[in-house]
Design goal:
Elements: E1 5-10, E2 20-24, H1 25-42, H2 47-53, H3 61-78, H4 91-109, E3 133-137
Antiparallel strand pairs: 1-2, 1-3
Length: about 140
């Protein structure tokens, strides 16, 4: 791999198997966005679906806005929209969110997200009891 790699290791107790994934910065950005999307959808944040497809080829702004409103109305009717740190939040959503937090922080530290939100620099606030993933860029945490 080139020098722009991230090593992500899910750390558990020594008897638990771990996974090491080596990816480029661009791939890490995609993974971060993907796990954030999954987390939000599992929490019932339905309008995020429209936000993600608005940049798809052939999708007009008008259609994306209409879909976003319809998904918002559905979300309201069904009483969805669980908070991330709520006991009602699905564990898979919380684990996904924690992975996203770790990746966004390490990408910020690597100057890949300096133009983005300041929250990217914050230390991750675990949403569940699972240990946080560990991410490094070029051997630095």
């Amino acid at each position: 791999m080139n020098s722009d790699t991230i090593e992500q290791t899910i750390q558990h107790d020594p008897s638990t198997k771990t996974v090491t994934l080596e990816v480029s910065i661009e791939q890490a950005e995609i993974i971060s966005e993907s796990v954030e999307f999954l987390s939000r959808v599992l929490l019932g944040h339905l309008p995020v679906i429209a936000e993600k497809i608005q940049d798809a080829p052939g999708v007009s702004t008008e259609y994306a806005n209409q879909l976003k409103e319809e998904l918002y109305q559905t979300q309201q009717r069904l009483g969805l929209h669980t908070a991330m740190h709520s006991e009602a939040a699905p564990e898979k959503s919380q684990i996904s969110w924690d992975i996203h937090q770790v990746l966004r922080q390490v990408l910020f530290q690597a100057n890949e997200r300096k133009e983005r939100y300041v929250v990217d620099a914050d230390d991750p606030s675990p949403a569940c009891s699972h240990p946080l993933a560990k991410a490094t860029i070029n051997g630095t945490t």
